[in-house]
Design a protein that fits this description.
The protein contains 15 helices and 17 strands. The chain has 480 residues and is α/β, with parallel strands linked by helices. The chain folds into 3 domains: 86 residues, Double Stranded RNA Binding Domain; 33 residues, no CATH class; 266 residues, Aldolase class I (TIM Barrel), CATH 3.20.20.70. It is globular, with a radius of gyration of 23 Å. Iron/sulfur cluster binds next to loops.
Length: 480
Protein backbone atom coordinates (compact mmCIF):
# COMPACT_ATOMS: atom_id res chain seq x y z
CA UNK A 1 0.00 0.00 0.00
CA UNK A 2 1.16 3.52 -0.75
CA UNK A 3 -0.02 7.09 -0.40
CA UNK A 4 0.33 9.63 -3.18
CA UNK A 5 0.20 13.34 -2.45
CA UNK A 6 0.43 15.73 -5.35
CA UNK A 7 -0.52 19.22 -6.44
CA UNK A 8 -1.39 17.72 -9.87
CA UNK A 9 -4.58 15.94 -8.92
CA UNK A 10 -5.81 16.47 -12.47
CA UNK A 11 -3.40 13.73 -13.58
CA UNK A 12 -3.45 11.67 -10.41
CA UNK A 13 -4.56 8.50 -12.22
CA UNK A 14 -1.72 8.79 -14.70
CA UNK A 15 0.79 9.15 -11.87
CA UNK A 16 -0.71 6.17 -10.08
CA UNK A 17 -0.30 4.09 -13.22
CA UNK A 18 3.46 4.70 -13.08
CA UNK A 19 3.60 3.92 -9.35
CA UNK A 20 1.69 0.68 -9.91
CA UNK A 21 4.42 -0.56 -12.23
CA UNK A 22 6.90 -0.34 -9.37
CA UNK A 23 4.63 -1.09 -6.48
CA UNK A 24 6.06 -3.21 -3.69
CA UNK A 25 5.85 -3.36 0.10
CA UNK A 26 8.84 -1.02 0.27
CA UNK A 27 6.82 1.85 -1.19
CA UNK A 28 4.68 3.61 1.37
CA UNK A 29 4.74 7.25 0.56
CA UNK A 30 5.18 9.23 -2.62
CA UNK A 31 4.74 12.90 -3.35
CA UNK A 32 4.89 14.80 -6.63
CA UNK A 33 4.90 18.60 -6.68
CA UNK A 34 4.98 20.57 -9.89
CA UNK A 35 6.00 24.23 -9.94
CA UNK A 36 6.88 26.98 -12.41
CA UNK A 37 9.90 29.01 -11.27
CA UNK A 38 10.24 32.63 -12.50
CA UNK A 39 7.96 31.73 -15.37
CA UNK A 40 11.05 30.25 -17.04
CA UNK A 41 11.45 26.74 -15.85
CA UNK A 42 9.49 23.83 -14.46
CA UNK A 43 10.72 22.15 -11.31
CA UNK A 44 9.46 18.82 -10.02
CA UNK A 45 9.93 17.99 -6.34
CA UNK A 46 9.44 14.29 -5.79
CA UNK A 47 9.88 12.20 -2.71
CA UNK A 48 9.73 8.42 -2.49
CA UNK A 49 9.46 7.37 1.14
CA UNK A 50 11.93 9.88 2.56
CA UNK A 51 14.26 10.07 -0.42
CA UNK A 52 14.03 13.38 -2.29
CA UNK A 53 14.49 14.14 -5.97
CA UNK A 54 14.47 17.46 -7.83
CA UNK A 55 14.18 17.70 -11.63
CA UNK A 56 14.29 20.90 -13.57
CA UNK A 57 13.25 21.55 -17.20
CA UNK A 58 12.97 24.67 -19.37
CA UNK A 59 9.37 25.83 -19.68
CA UNK A 60 7.94 24.54 -22.94
CA UNK A 61 6.99 26.95 -25.64
CA UNK A 62 4.04 25.08 -27.20
CA UNK A 63 1.48 27.54 -28.53
CA UNK A 64 -1.24 24.92 -28.88
CA UNK A 65 -3.16 24.41 -25.61
CA UNK A 66 -3.49 20.63 -26.03
CA UNK A 67 0.22 20.28 -26.79
CA UNK A 68 1.06 22.47 -23.80
CA UNK A 69 -0.99 20.31 -21.43
CA UNK A 70 0.50 17.19 -23.00
CA UNK A 71 4.02 18.49 -22.38
CA UNK A 72 3.22 19.13 -18.68
CA UNK A 73 1.89 15.61 -18.23
CA UNK A 74 4.90 14.19 -20.04
CA UNK A 75 7.29 15.99 -17.66
CA UNK A 76 5.42 14.85 -14.54
CA UNK A 77 5.33 11.21 -15.63
CA UNK A 78 8.91 11.21 -16.82
CA UNK A 79 10.19 12.70 -13.55
CA UNK A 80 8.20 10.28 -11.44
CA UNK A 81 9.53 7.40 -13.53
CA UNK A 82 13.11 8.62 -13.08
CA UNK A 83 12.68 8.88 -9.31
CA UNK A 84 11.06 5.46 -8.91
CA UNK A 85 13.54 3.88 -11.25
CA UNK A 86 16.38 5.20 -9.11
CA UNK A 87 14.67 4.30 -5.84
CA UNK A 88 14.01 0.70 -6.86
CA UNK A 89 17.07 0.37 -9.12
CA UNK A 90 14.78 -0.96 -11.81
CA UNK A 91 13.89 0.02 -15.37
CA UNK A 92 10.69 -0.84 -17.23
CA UNK A 93 10.56 -2.08 -20.84
CA UNK A 94 8.26 0.77 -21.84
CA UNK A 95 9.93 3.36 -19.60
CA UNK A 96 7.60 6.19 -18.63
CA UNK A 97 5.01 5.26 -21.29
CA UNK A 98 1.74 4.14 -19.76
CA UNK A 99 -1.83 4.24 -20.98
CA UNK A 100 -0.83 4.95 -24.54
CA UNK A 101 -0.43 3.04 -27.72
CA UNK A 102 3.25 3.56 -28.47
CA UNK A 103 2.64 3.31 -32.20
CA UNK A 104 0.29 6.27 -32.03
CA UNK A 105 2.92 8.31 -30.26
CA UNK A 106 5.43 7.28 -32.93
CA UNK A 107 2.95 8.23 -35.67
CA UNK A 108 2.52 11.63 -34.04
CA UNK A 109 6.29 12.10 -34.01
CA UNK A 110 6.40 11.19 -37.69
CA UNK A 111 3.66 13.69 -38.39
CA UNK A 112 5.58 16.36 -36.49
CA UNK A 113 8.53 15.90 -38.81
CA UNK A 114 10.71 13.38 -36.95
CA UNK A 115 12.19 11.05 -39.61
CA UNK A 116 11.36 7.34 -39.24
CA UNK A 117 15.05 6.60 -38.71
CA UNK A 118 15.09 8.80 -35.59
CA UNK A 119 11.92 7.59 -33.88
CA UNK A 120 13.50 4.70 -32.01
CA UNK A 121 16.19 7.02 -30.63
CA UNK A 122 13.59 9.56 -29.57
CA UNK A 123 11.50 6.94 -27.76
CA UNK A 124 14.61 5.82 -25.90
CA UNK A 125 15.87 9.27 -25.03
CA UNK A 126 12.62 11.04 -24.27
CA UNK A 127 10.63 8.22 -22.63
CA UNK A 128 13.32 5.75 -21.46
CA UNK A 129 11.76 3.03 -23.63
CA UNK A 130 14.10 0.02 -23.91
CA UNK A 131 15.90 -0.50 -27.19
CA UNK A 132 13.99 -3.62 -28.23
CA UNK A 133 10.56 -2.08 -27.51
CA UNK A 134 11.52 1.11 -29.37
CA UNK A 135 12.64 -0.93 -32.37
CA UNK A 136 9.47 -3.02 -32.21
CA UNK A 137 7.35 0.13 -32.29
CA UNK A 138 9.12 1.35 -35.42
CA UNK A 139 8.77 -2.08 -37.09
CA UNK A 140 5.03 -1.99 -36.46
CA UNK A 141 4.70 1.49 -37.85
CA UNK A 142 6.54 0.32 -40.96
CA UNK A 143 4.30 -2.77 -41.35
CA UNK A 144 1.19 -0.67 -41.05
CA UNK A 145 2.41 1.95 -43.50
CA UNK A 146 3.47 -0.68 -45.99
CA UNK A 147 0.13 -2.50 -46.06
CA UNK A 148 -2.46 0.16 -45.27
CA UNK A 149 -2.19 3.36 -47.29
CA UNK A 150 -1.34 6.18 -44.92
CA UNK A 151 -2.37 3.78 -42.12
CA UNK A 152 -5.83 5.20 -43.07
CA UNK A 153 -4.65 7.56 -40.59
CA UNK A 154 -5.55 10.35 -38.28
CA UNK A 155 -1.78 10.71 -38.39
CA UNK A 156 -0.88 11.93 -34.96
CA UNK A 157 -4.05 14.04 -34.83
CA UNK A 158 -3.20 15.51 -38.21
CA UNK A 159 -4.48 14.51 -41.61
CA UNK A 160 -7.94 13.09 -41.47
CA UNK A 161 -8.53 11.89 -44.97
CA UNK A 162 -10.83 8.92 -44.62
CA UNK A 163 -13.97 10.46 -43.26
CA UNK A 164 -16.18 8.36 -45.53
CA UNK A 165 -14.81 5.00 -44.31
CA UNK A 166 -16.11 3.38 -41.12
CA UNK A 167 -15.83 0.04 -39.35
CA UNK A 168 -18.87 -2.02 -38.37
CA UNK A 169 -18.64 -3.92 -35.08
CA UNK A 170 -21.09 -6.60 -33.95
CA UNK A 171 -21.05 -7.84 -30.35
CA UNK A 172 -22.29 -11.24 -29.21
CA UNK A 173 -21.92 -11.28 -25.43
CA UNK A 174 -22.11 -14.99 -24.74
CA UNK A 175 -19.48 -17.67 -24.08
CA UNK A 176 -19.75 -21.33 -23.09
CA UNK A 177 -18.14 -20.53 -19.69
CA UNK A 178 -16.35 -17.48 -18.32
CA UNK A 179 -12.53 -17.41 -18.33
CA UNK A 180 -11.01 -16.46 -14.97
CA UNK A 181 -9.17 -13.46 -16.46
CA UNK A 182 -12.13 -12.17 -18.51
CA UNK A 183 -13.29 -8.58 -18.13
CA UNK A 184 -15.27 -8.39 -21.38
CA UNK A 185 -19.01 -8.00 -21.66
CA UNK A 186 -19.87 -11.66 -21.85
CA UNK A 187 -22.06 -14.11 -19.99
CA UNK A 188 -21.89 -17.87 -19.57
CA UNK A 189 -24.47 -19.15 -22.01
CA UNK A 190 -26.11 -21.83 -19.86
CA UNK A 191 -28.14 -19.52 -17.65
CA UNK A 192 -29.03 -17.21 -20.54
CA UNK A 193 -29.97 -19.72 -23.24
CA UNK A 194 -33.54 -18.35 -23.36
CA UNK A 195 -32.20 -14.94 -24.40
CA UNK A 196 -30.25 -16.12 -27.43
CA UNK A 197 -33.09 -16.11 -29.99
CA UNK A 198 -34.56 -12.70 -29.06
CA UNK A 199 -31.05 -11.28 -28.85
CA UNK A 200 -30.08 -12.51 -32.33
CA UNK A 201 -33.31 -11.07 -33.79
CA UNK A 202 -32.80 -7.65 -32.16
CA UNK A 203 -29.13 -7.58 -33.06
CA UNK A 204 -29.83 -8.37 -36.73
CA UNK A 205 -32.35 -5.52 -36.73
CA UNK A 206 -29.85 -3.12 -35.17
CA UNK A 207 -27.25 -4.10 -37.78
CA UNK A 208 -29.71 -3.49 -40.65
CA UNK A 209 -30.67 -0.06 -39.33
CA UNK A 210 -27.04 0.83 -38.68
CA UNK A 211 -26.08 -0.08 -42.23
CA UNK A 212 -28.97 2.06 -43.53
CA UNK A 213 -27.66 4.92 -41.42
CA UNK A 214 -24.13 4.47 -42.78
CA UNK A 215 -25.44 4.47 -46.36
CA UNK A 216 -27.62 7.52 -45.74
CA UNK A 217 -24.49 9.40 -44.67
CA UNK A 218 -22.67 8.42 -47.87
CA UNK A 219 -20.18 6.45 -45.84
CA UNK A 220 -18.69 3.12 -46.73
CA UNK A 221 -17.98 0.12 -44.53
CA UNK A 222 -14.26 -0.60 -44.54
CA UNK A 223 -14.29 -3.77 -42.41
CA UNK A 224 -16.72 -5.84 -40.38
CA UNK A 225 -15.82 -7.50 -37.09
CA UNK A 226 -18.08 -9.87 -35.14
CA UNK A 227 -16.65 -10.33 -31.65
CA UNK A 228 -17.68 -10.84 -28.09
CA UNK A 229 -17.95 -12.98 -26.22
CA UNK A 230 -17.77 -15.83 -28.62
CA UNK A 231 -20.09 -15.36 -31.62
CA UNK A 232 -19.94 -19.08 -32.41
CA UNK A 233 -21.73 -19.76 -29.12
CA UNK A 234 -24.87 -19.13 -31.22
CA UNK A 235 -26.37 -22.14 -32.95
CA UNK A 236 -26.10 -22.14 -36.78
CA UNK A 237 -29.55 -20.67 -37.47
CA UNK A 238 -29.04 -17.71 -35.10
CA UNK A 239 -25.45 -17.26 -36.20
CA UNK A 240 -26.66 -17.04 -39.80
CA UNK A 241 -29.26 -14.43 -38.87
CA UNK A 242 -26.65 -12.14 -37.30
CA UNK A 243 -23.74 -12.69 -39.69
CA UNK A 244 -25.92 -12.37 -42.78
CA UNK A 245 -27.28 -9.02 -41.60
CA UNK A 246 -23.70 -7.73 -41.32
CA UNK A 247 -22.51 -9.07 -44.70
CA UNK A 248 -20.87 -6.39 -46.81
CA UNK A 249 -19.43 -7.26 -50.18
CA UNK A 250 -15.73 -6.84 -50.71
CA UNK A 251 -14.78 -6.04 -47.11
CA UNK A 252 -12.55 -7.77 -44.64
CA UNK A 253 -15.02 -9.69 -42.46
CA UNK A 254 -13.76 -11.25 -39.24
CA UNK A 255 -15.67 -13.53 -36.89
CA UNK A 256 -14.23 -14.56 -33.55
CA UNK A 257 -14.59 -18.25 -32.87
CA UNK A 258 -12.42 -18.09 -29.79
CA UNK A 259 -13.65 -21.21 -28.05
CA UNK A 260 -12.77 -24.32 -30.07
CA UNK A 261 -15.68 -26.22 -28.46
CA UNK A 262 -18.15 -23.89 -30.18
CA UNK A 263 -16.93 -24.66 -33.70
CA UNK A 264 -18.37 -27.29 -36.00
CA UNK A 265 -18.68 -27.82 -39.73
CA UNK A 266 -22.17 -26.38 -39.95
CA UNK A 267 -21.17 -23.10 -38.27
CA UNK A 268 -18.08 -22.78 -40.43
CA UNK A 269 -20.30 -23.26 -43.44
CA UNK A 270 -22.61 -20.49 -42.18
CA UNK A 271 -19.65 -18.14 -41.73
CA UNK A 272 -18.35 -18.87 -45.19
CA UNK A 273 -21.79 -18.39 -46.75
CA UNK A 274 -22.16 -15.00 -45.01
CA UNK A 275 -18.87 -13.73 -46.42
CA UNK A 276 -16.65 -14.12 -43.35
CA UNK A 277 -13.07 -14.36 -44.54
CA UNK A 278 -11.10 -14.31 -41.29
CA UNK A 279 -11.63 -16.23 -38.09
CA UNK A 280 -9.92 -16.29 -34.73
CA UNK A 281 -9.53 -19.58 -32.86
CA UNK A 282 -7.93 -19.04 -29.49
CA UNK A 283 -6.62 -21.87 -27.35
CA UNK A 284 -4.58 -19.45 -25.12
CA UNK A 285 -2.56 -22.47 -23.99
CA UNK A 286 -1.85 -26.04 -25.06
CA UNK A 287 -1.75 -27.36 -21.49
CA UNK A 288 -4.85 -29.18 -20.25
CA UNK A 289 -4.09 -28.28 -16.64
CA UNK A 290 -4.00 -24.56 -17.43
CA UNK A 291 -7.20 -24.77 -19.48
CA UNK A 292 -8.99 -26.15 -16.41
CA UNK A 293 -7.43 -23.53 -14.15
CA UNK A 294 -8.52 -20.60 -16.31
CA UNK A 295 -12.06 -21.89 -16.66
CA UNK A 296 -12.14 -22.94 -20.29
CA UNK A 297 -14.22 -26.01 -20.93
CA UNK A 298 -12.40 -27.33 -24.01
CA UNK A 299 -9.45 -29.62 -24.58
CA UNK A 300 -6.24 -29.22 -26.54
CA UNK A 301 -7.45 -31.86 -28.99
CA UNK A 302 -10.63 -29.86 -29.63
CA UNK A 303 -8.49 -26.88 -30.59
CA UNK A 304 -6.46 -28.85 -33.16
CA UNK A 305 -9.62 -30.43 -34.61
CA UNK A 306 -11.35 -27.06 -34.91
CA UNK A 307 -8.28 -25.51 -36.51
CA UNK A 308 -8.00 -28.29 -39.08
CA UNK A 309 -11.68 -27.99 -39.94
CA UNK A 310 -11.47 -24.19 -40.33
CA UNK A 311 -8.41 -24.60 -42.54
CA UNK A 312 -10.48 -26.59 -45.05
CA UNK A 313 -12.82 -23.61 -45.50
CA UNK A 314 -9.91 -21.36 -46.53
CA UNK A 315 -10.35 -18.71 -43.84
CA UNK A 316 -7.43 -16.51 -42.88
CA UNK A 317 -6.83 -17.71 -39.33
CA UNK A 318 -5.67 -15.96 -36.19
CA UNK A 319 -4.60 -17.82 -33.05
CA UNK A 320 -4.36 -16.06 -29.66
CA UNK A 321 -1.98 -17.17 -26.93
CA UNK A 322 -1.46 -15.69 -23.47
CA UNK A 323 1.95 -15.31 -21.82
CA UNK A 324 2.03 -15.32 -18.04
CA UNK A 325 -0.85 -17.69 -17.28
CA UNK A 326 -1.08 -19.07 -13.78
CA UNK A 327 1.50 -21.80 -13.13
CA UNK A 328 3.05 -21.77 -16.60
CA UNK A 329 6.84 -21.59 -16.81
CA UNK A 330 8.82 -20.21 -19.76
CA UNK A 331 9.34 -23.85 -20.80
CA UNK A 332 5.57 -24.42 -20.79
CA UNK A 333 5.17 -21.30 -22.86
CA UNK A 334 7.80 -22.45 -25.39
CA UNK A 335 6.03 -25.78 -25.71
CA UNK A 336 2.64 -24.25 -26.47
CA UNK A 337 4.12 -21.57 -28.65
CA UNK A 338 6.02 -24.06 -30.79
CA UNK A 339 2.86 -26.18 -31.05
CA UNK A 340 1.06 -23.21 -32.61
CA UNK A 341 3.99 -22.18 -34.80
CA UNK A 342 3.93 -25.61 -36.44
CA UNK A 343 0.48 -24.75 -37.81
CA UNK A 344 1.79 -21.51 -39.35
CA UNK A 345 -1.49 -19.59 -39.03
CA UNK A 346 -1.56 -16.32 -40.96
CA UNK A 347 -1.86 -14.36 -37.69
CA UNK A 348 -0.67 -15.07 -34.16
CA UNK A 349 -1.55 -12.68 -31.36
CA UNK A 350 0.58 -12.88 -28.23
CA UNK A 351 -1.19 -11.41 -25.21
CA UNK A 352 0.29 -10.78 -21.80
CA UNK A 353 -1.95 -11.76 -18.90
CA UNK A 354 -3.90 -8.77 -17.71
CA UNK A 355 -5.78 -8.86 -14.41
CA UNK A 356 -8.38 -6.21 -15.04
CA UNK A 357 -11.08 -5.14 -12.64
CA UNK A 358 -14.13 -7.21 -13.43
CA UNK A 359 -12.23 -10.45 -13.93
CA UNK A 360 -12.64 -13.31 -11.47
CA UNK A 361 -8.97 -13.33 -10.46
CA UNK A 362 -8.36 -9.57 -10.55
CA UNK A 363 -7.44 -9.48 -6.89
CA UNK A 364 -4.96 -12.30 -6.97
CA UNK A 365 -1.36 -11.43 -7.76
CA UNK A 366 -0.57 -15.12 -7.21
CA UNK A 367 -1.96 -16.05 -10.61
CA UNK A 368 0.68 -14.12 -12.50
CA UNK A 369 3.67 -15.99 -13.81
CA UNK A 370 6.81 -14.17 -12.71
CA UNK A 371 8.84 -14.76 -15.83
CA UNK A 372 6.46 -13.34 -18.38
CA UNK A 373 9.02 -11.10 -20.02
CA UNK A 374 11.14 -14.14 -20.86
CA UNK A 375 8.10 -15.67 -22.57
CA UNK A 376 7.33 -12.56 -24.58
CA UNK A 377 10.99 -12.27 -25.62
CA UNK A 378 10.95 -15.90 -26.73
CA UNK A 379 7.85 -15.31 -28.86
CA UNK A 380 9.43 -12.28 -30.56
CA UNK A 381 12.55 -14.27 -31.56
CA UNK A 382 10.62 -17.35 -32.69
CA UNK A 383 8.12 -15.37 -34.74
CA UNK A 384 10.76 -13.32 -36.50
CA UNK A 385 12.72 -16.49 -37.29
CA UNK A 386 9.60 -17.87 -39.01
CA UNK A 387 9.08 -14.75 -41.10
CA UNK A 388 6.24 -13.14 -39.09
CA UNK A 389 6.10 -9.33 -38.75
CA UNK A 390 4.54 -7.42 -35.86
CA UNK A 391 1.66 -5.30 -37.17
CA UNK A 392 -0.27 -3.96 -34.21
CA UNK A 393 0.36 -3.46 -30.57
CA UNK A 394 -1.62 -2.30 -27.60
CA UNK A 395 -1.08 -2.03 -23.91
CA UNK A 396 -3.52 -2.29 -21.05
CA UNK A 397 -3.48 -1.25 -17.44
CA UNK A 398 -2.75 -4.06 -14.96
CA UNK A 399 -0.75 -6.05 -17.50
CA UNK A 400 1.86 -8.38 -16.04
CA UNK A 401 5.28 -6.71 -15.91
CA UNK A 402 3.80 -3.70 -17.72
CA UNK A 403 4.17 -5.56 -21.03
CA UNK A 404 1.99 -5.51 -24.14
CA UNK A 405 -0.12 -7.45 -26.64
CA UNK A 406 1.24 -7.85 -30.14
CA UNK A 407 -0.44 -9.04 -33.33
CA UNK A 408 1.87 -10.79 -35.80
CA UNK A 409 1.21 -11.66 -39.40
CA UNK A 410 2.97 -13.46 -42.19
CA UNK A 411 2.99 -12.59 -45.88
CA UNK A 412 1.17 -9.32 -45.29
CA UNK A 413 -2.02 -11.01 -44.01
CA UNK A 414 -2.57 -8.30 -41.44
CA UNK A 415 -6.06 -7.63 -40.10
CA UNK A 416 -6.90 -4.07 -41.14
CA UNK A 417 -9.70 -3.91 -38.62
CA UNK A 418 -7.25 -4.52 -35.77
CA UNK A 419 -5.00 -1.73 -37.01
CA UNK A 420 -7.67 0.90 -37.58
CA UNK A 421 -9.50 0.10 -34.34
CA UNK A 422 -6.38 0.02 -32.17
CA UNK A 423 -4.94 3.14 -33.76
CA UNK A 424 -8.37 4.81 -33.61
CA UNK A 425 -8.15 6.03 -37.18
CA UNK A 426 -11.68 5.14 -38.36
CA UNK A 427 -15.05 5.65 -36.68
CA UNK A 428 -16.80 2.53 -35.43
CA UNK A 429 -20.53 1.90 -35.79
CA UNK A 430 -21.19 -0.69 -33.11
CA UNK A 431 -24.15 -3.01 -32.58
CA UNK A 432 -25.15 -5.27 -29.70
CA UNK A 433 -25.33 -5.29 -25.91
CA UNK A 434 -22.27 -3.60 -24.41
CA UNK A 435 -20.97 -2.52 -27.82
CA UNK A 436 -19.20 0.83 -27.85
CA UNK A 437 -19.37 2.98 -30.97
CA UNK A 438 -16.84 5.73 -31.66
CA UNK A 439 -16.83 8.88 -33.73
CA UNK A 440 -13.28 9.80 -34.55
CA UNK A 441 -11.79 12.99 -35.99
CA UNK A 442 -8.45 14.73 -35.45
CA UNK A 443 -8.05 15.39 -31.73
CA UNK A 444 -11.61 14.27 -30.97
CA UNK A 445 -13.22 11.01 -30.03
CA UNK A 446 -16.78 10.54 -28.82
CA UNK A 447 -18.21 7.27 -27.66
CA UNK A 448 -21.68 5.83 -27.41
CA UNK A 449 -22.38 2.64 -25.50
CA UNK A 450 -25.30 0.23 -25.62
CA UNK A 451 -26.47 -1.23 -22.29
CA UNK A 452 -24.30 -4.14 -21.21
CA UNK A 453 -27.17 -6.13 -19.81
CA UNK A 454 -28.87 -8.18 -22.53
CA UNK A 455 -32.36 -7.81 -21.06
CA UNK A 456 -31.94 -4.07 -20.76
CA UNK A 457 -30.61 -3.97 -24.32
CA UNK A 458 -33.79 -5.67 -25.51
CA UNK A 459 -36.11 -3.53 -23.39
CA UNK A 460 -34.52 -0.21 -24.36
CA UNK A 461 -34.00 -1.14 -28.00
CA UNK A 462 -36.09 1.57 -29.72
CA UNK A 463 -34.96 4.33 -27.38
CA UNK A 464 -31.28 3.38 -27.90
CA UNK A 465 -31.75 3.27 -31.68
CA UNK A 466 -33.08 6.82 -31.61
CA UNK A 467 -30.10 8.01 -29.54
CA UNK A 468 -27.69 6.18 -31.78
CA UNK A 469 -29.18 7.74 -34.89
CA UNK A 470 -28.83 11.21 -33.35
CA UNK A 471 -25.31 10.51 -32.14
CA UNK A 472 -23.99 9.54 -35.56
CA UNK A 473 -26.07 12.05 -37.53
CA UNK A 474 -24.96 15.03 -35.51
CA UNK A 475 -21.28 14.16 -35.96
CA UNK A 476 -19.79 15.93 -32.93
CA UNK A 477 -22.45 18.56 -32.46
CA UNK A 478 -24.03 16.71 -29.52
CA UNK A 479 -22.65 14.88 -26.57
CA UNK A 480 -24.30 11.76 -25.13
S1 LIG B 1 -13.62 -16.47 -24.39
FE1 LIG B 1 -13.05 -14.31 -24.28
S2 LIG B 1 -14.99 -13.21 -23.95
FE2 LIG B 1 -15.36 -15.39 -23.50
S3 LIG B 1 -15.08 -15.58 -21.30
FE3 LIG B 1 -13.09 -16.06 -22.25
S4 LIG B 1 -11.98 -14.10 -22.33
FE4 LIG B 1 -14.14 -13.64 -21.93
Amino acid sequence: MYELTTNRNDIRNELIEIIRCFVSDALTDCSVNFTYVDNEKIVLYISVNSKRYIYSYPKHCESDKIEYARADVYICKLSLYRALSDFFDKTLPWGSLTGIRPTRLAARMLNNGVPLSKISEKLRNDYFVSENKAELTVEILKSQSEHIPDRLSVAGDGNFNNSNLVNLYVHIPFCPTRCSYCSFVSEGVEKKAWLLAPYATALAEEIRRTKDLIRSQNKRIFSVYAGGGTPTTLEPELLFKVLKAATEDGTEYTCEAGRPDTINEEKLHVMSECGVNRISINPQTLHEKTLRKIGRAHTVEQFFNAYELADKFGFVKNVDLIAGLDGETPEDFEYKFNGILKLMPENITVHTLCLKRGSANAQSEAVRSERTQEMVNYSVGALKARGYSPYYLYRQKQTTENLENIGWCRNGFLCVNNVTVMEETLSVYACGAGAIGKLIAPGRIQRIANPKDVLMYLEQFEERMRKKQLFYQNQFTILT
